[in-house]
Amino acid sequence: MPAMADETLFQLLHTQVVAAAYGAGRGSGDEGLRAGLTVLEGMGFRVGQGLAERLPQGALAFREELDTIKFLCRDLWGAVFGKQTDNLRTNHQGTYILQDNNFPFLTQMAWGQQYLEEAPKVLGEQFLAFTCGLLRGTLSSLGIESSVTASVTSLPACKFQVVIQKA
Amino acid sequence: MAVCIAVIAKENYPLYIRSIPAEQELKFHYTVHTSLDVVDEKVSAMGKALVDQRELYLGLLYPTEDYKVSLLSRLGIPCVKSMFPNQLHRYGYVTNSKVKFVMVVDSSNTALRDNEIRSMFRKLHNSYTDVMCNPFYNPGDRIHSRAFDNMVTSMMVQVC
Predict the structure, then answer these.
(1) Which of A23, A128, B80, B150 is most deeply packed, by most CB within 10 A?
(2) Contact A62 B52 (CB under 8 A)
(3) What is the ipTM of this complex?
(4) Which chain A residues touch B97 with a CB distance below 8 Å?
């Protein structure tokens, strides 16, 4: 039974987690940045693994890669963010682009002008690292090794690029 | 009413295995291991077909005179009669993350119905999911959770 405050709490928690990952003690500069990225992405990965066990309510319906990605877009997004992704594109060669035009983590930043210039550079890679890890973890648990990157073009829309590693 | 329950990881090593009575553990390790081949066969056969998640494997009956007992009797050593004069049925179940559950059931007293086996597997799956969501648990480690142990105990049979 979803309580009213769940989504807000999750967003607040996520913001704090990001701040802590890149915060004091890690140092600024490239080293600290990379450490923060690793921590954040790893966290998302572990959560994704747990979610992959809990979410699929039913049959072993993932006969193809595409089915698994669609599961991500619908069920995972629905469970974690309360909505579905708006667009899914693929080149049928193992690369998928999941587009969300109103990404919950970014909506609060989209209100004013304050972050508009800084947004694309910083946000895509650093802020969304947790979500990238989440996607990677879920896919890995379902048997697909991949690498996930995020990019932000215009707040609050963002794109996640999933590249499947061919064994 | 299970006699042995095992949780096998994707890479085919055991994450959790428990059997009653405890002395027969090695035999059950072997039993479960051979069942894995059958599980793999079934999974690859499922392939493109639209099949359900739980796989029921019934029919691999474990004969009364197993290989160990007959070897001993050939050597002329009096051997103890197997504690399971009846047949042992093995059931398998695969999750979406390719984790397998194998259950060995003694079918002496009650002929367990399909539904009961399925509900046991569902309980197992739910407990396994809880273990997986525990942030202090690293996937791939052996399972030490007390809650999981209690759930398995509740499913095992009381022998003598």
Answers:
(1) A128
(2) no
(3) 0.83
(4) 52-53, 141-143
